[in-house]
Design a protein that fits this description.
The structure holds two protein chains of two kinds. By secondary structure, chain A is mainly alpha-helical. Chain A has helices at 2-42, 55-69, 71-76, 92-127, 140-166. The longest helix of chain B is centred in the middle third of the chain and has 35 residues, at 269-303. The chains are: A mainly alpha, B mainly alpha.
């Protein structure tokens, strides 16, 4: 179970990395195509019109996907920042109790966000909403990705909370600022 | 007066959540939820999901992971080792001598990484041992490093300016360009201060021990730095000239950074993976904070608090200078226990309407805000740069903070200068056209 959960979060991280890579490659291709076109035009030839259609909007959706699928991975590697000024002065037991509370509040907010994101995606699906760009993307697709990322985050938060309660974790993982 | 009590109540609630250790993104969201639920009749959940969605799916915001990625790749190349030896031959004759390697090294690296903590760590790793071994004054080694590393926030491409631009719907390209002159000005001020200091304290700067190198040799030693400097100039230049949007030039920057790192032999499957996963971590963290901040901004908008505050400020008919003075004190205090990005997103949700009502240019305000945040990076107890340098050198944080104090004051002088002469900020962007 432990190994399954850890690889689940890592999978989310890899998916986020993949989406960022796709954004990078698409944008680079688009710029290269534009440069090629300019070069051809100055040479008096016809432009090839190499374009990634609807790039700006697609990149936006991929970024959304990268952010939300990466949430749980970032949580488990201690990437989300928080203020630990008070924490450092507290005795270990109190600190753990406070961290349980923190994870619980975050879990409640995530649950609330999941519920309404599901409704949002469902409405988009129901009304057949599509994006307004050159390539009409059904909005429920990126919205469903958002839901999936939030669900992963909720699992990770629950995991952290149980870990704190059972003593597997001493505190929520925080990254040292110098890394 | 109700409105003031309510905003104070919300602010207190937010600070309690943050102080308890709730992640910043969640604390912002929670405050937004409370504001909407108690102070408006807007459906809370629908606003939340729509805000998260619309704030995260953004072409402009895509510049953020790309610039982070570019920095991560260059950070893992041999650049940091080459920085010291590449700059040292050029500054030997300037008063203050090798202390300037910290300032210039941080300036160059700041342009690459956009993170002041990474800048301090990377430059300090090489320069602190080298300078200490040569017998430079300890306090000045720490001070120049702590002070100059904060430039990472201002010198474009700057992560925090992307955050400000996205949160306030300002053009990121114009913000980047606006950051150029103030960034150079601050570097110059630091360099002049080091020069004057070294004239007054000759014992802190050891005498020349290296032979004067011929020009060709100097250039040979700096050769590894040239492609990196060209990359930065290319990225910023293409944005300034309007050839590419920030997102585009950032993506090209990522590709070229990989090329450079491959050419220098430091690109491997391992460094590629580390850089990419590091990017996921930082980009996700910031983008999630921005999603929370966007929701808070929308919620605050519905409660009408920012508008009322702006009206209230107007009735006081303060001069903009008094308002800025008050805000500077407020931000430095806030920055004492919050990181820079959180300070910026918090500001934009409440303070910006007030600032605009007072007739302050939001473009200028972005640069002002970043310099003030830079100041807070070197104030205890939570100046991130202080922690980094403490970790790097083992010097006590208070000692580092004292060493950085002159640079804090220089940053403050920088704020005063751009306030008196706003053209320092706005001249270059005004030349850009649209």
């Amino acid at each position: 179970m432990r190994r399954f959960l850890d690889s689940l979060y890592r999978l989310g991280g890899y998916l986020a990395a993949l989406q960022l890579t796709v954004i990078m490659v698409m944008v680079v291709l688009q710029v290269l195509g534009r440069i090629l076109d300019k070069a051809l035009l100055t040479l008096g030839m016809d432009s090839l019109g190499l374009q990634v259609p609807g790039l700006a909007e697609l990149a936006g959706f991929l970024l959304l996907g990268a952010t939300f699928t990466g949430l749980s991975y970032t949580l488990t590697v201690g990437g989300h920042i928080r203020v630990d000024l008070l924490h450092r002065t507290l005795p270990a037991a109190v600190r753990r109790g406070l961290d349980v509370l923190v994870a619980l509040v975050a879990l409640a907010i995530t649950g609330f966000a999941i519920w309404f994101s599901v409704l949002l995606a469902y409405d988009s699906y129901d009304f057949g909403d599509v994006s307004i760009g050159m390539v009409p993307v059904p909005l429920w697709i990126p919205q469903a990705v958002m839901v999936a990322g939030l669900v992963l985050l909720a699992i990770a938060l629950l995991d952290v909370m149980i870990g704190l309660l059972t003593g597997r974790l001493n505190q929520i993982k925080d990254e040292a600022p110098q890394e | 007066m109700d409105m003031i009590w309510m905003s104070l109540l919300l602010l207190t609630g937010l600070l309690i959540l943050l102080g308890a250790g709730l992640w910043v993104a969640f604390a912002l969201t929670a405050t937004g939820l409370a504001a909407l639920h108690f102070l408006s009749s807007i459906p809370v959940g629908d606003s939340l999901s729509t805000s998260f969605f619309s704030a995260s799916a953004s072409w402009e915001l895509a510049a953020l992971p790309m610039f982070i990625w570019m920095g991560e790749v260059l950070f893992r190349s041999r650049l940091s080792e080459q920085m010291f030896s590449g700059i040292a031959p050029w500054v030997g004759r300037i008063p203050g001598r090798l202390l300037h390697t910290n300032i210039i090294g941080c300036g160059i690296f700041a342009a690459i990484s956009g993170s002041s903590a990474a800048t301090a760590a990377t430059i300090g790793k090489m320069s602190v041992p080298e300078l200490t071994q040569r017998g430079y004054d300890r306090k000045q080694i720490l001070g120049t490093l702590a002070g100059s590393a904060t430039l990472g926030l201002l010198i474009p491409p700057s992560i925090i300016l992307i955050v400000y631009g996205v949160a306030t719907e300002q053009s990121i390209a114009r913000l980047f360009v606006a950051g150029i002159l103030p960034g150079l000005l601050l570097m110059l001020m630091f360099a002049v201060y080091v020069g004057i200091w070294s004239k007054l304290n000759p014992s802190g700067v050891p005498a020349d021990e290296e032979e004067a190198l011929p020009l060709a040799e100097k250039i040979r030693r700096s050769k590894p730095l040239i492609p990196v400097v060209l990359l930065i100039v290319g990225v910023i230049g293409s944005i300034y000239a309007g050839l590419a949007s920030p997102t585009e030039s950032a993506a090209i920057g990522v590709a070229l950074a990989h090329l450079l790192s491959w050419r220098s032999g430091s690109l491997s499957r391992e460094t590629f993976g580390q850089a990419l996963m590091g990017t996921v971590k930082t980009s996700t963290m910031i983008a999630f904070i921005l999603a929370g901040a966007h929701f808070l901004t929308v919620s605050m908008g519905f409660t009408g608090i920012p508008r009322d505050l702006a009206t209230w400020i107007n009735t006081l008919s303060l001069s903009p200078y008094v308002l800025l003075l008050a805000l500077t004190v407020f931000f430095v205090l806030l920055g004492c226990f919050l990181d820079g990005i959180s300070v910026v997103v918090l500001t934009t949700s409440v303070v910006l309407p007030m600032v605009q009502a007072a007739g302050i240019d939001p473009l200028w305000f972005g640069i002002y805000l970043v310099i003030v945040v830079e100041m807070s990076q070197i104030t205890p107890p939570v100046g991130f740069n202080l922690f980094v340098i403490q970790g790097l050198t083992g010097d006590n944080i208070i000692r580092v903070a004292l060493a950085a104090l002159p640079y804090f004051l220089l940053l403050l002088a920088g704020v005063v200068l751009i306030t008196l002469f706003p053209d320092i900020v706005t001249y270059l962007p005004n030349q850009m056209g649209n």
